Amino acid sequence: MTLRLSKIVMSLCLAAFAFLVAFGNITDYGSNFAFVQHVLSMDTTFPGNALMYRSITSPALWTAGYWLIIVGEALTCVLFLVAAFKLWQARKGSGREFNDAKGFVVIGATMGFLVWFLGFMVVGGEWFAMWQSSTWNGQEAAFKFYMTMLAVLIFVNQPDHDLA
Length: 164
Prior knowledge:
Layout: H1 2-27, H2 29-41, H3 59-90, H4 95-100, H5 103-127, H6 139-156
Helix pairs in contact: 1-2, 1-3, 1-6, 2-3, 3-5, 5-6
């Protein structure tokens, strides 16, 4: 039972994390919007770099990109909440029932991976050359986030057996 409860708690922790990130992006909209604005406009990348044709200088597109991030973070939260609830419901069931309840953990981790790996590492980091900015570079933080989710995903998906 200890391992099952640990898997539930870790799913809840990831839900809490995603909630706080989304909540922070909404309640401190201006600061975090500035991050998206600078990354997409590429205004703090190396001067004269050949990738500037990729920059986006439209405030409407900055806003759309920012809300896409917030929605992704909020969906990650909801999916991990559902995952924890499904695991909680199956905690006293057979190993097969508990293993079958892990689907939303996979979906939640996939959503989080899309936000922090695809969104921040691939799109922000590589397409918009965020790695070139000493001020507006979120790659290190994003790495910590998606690696934590992947570690929890690996742990949760270790097979559970029937309870003694």
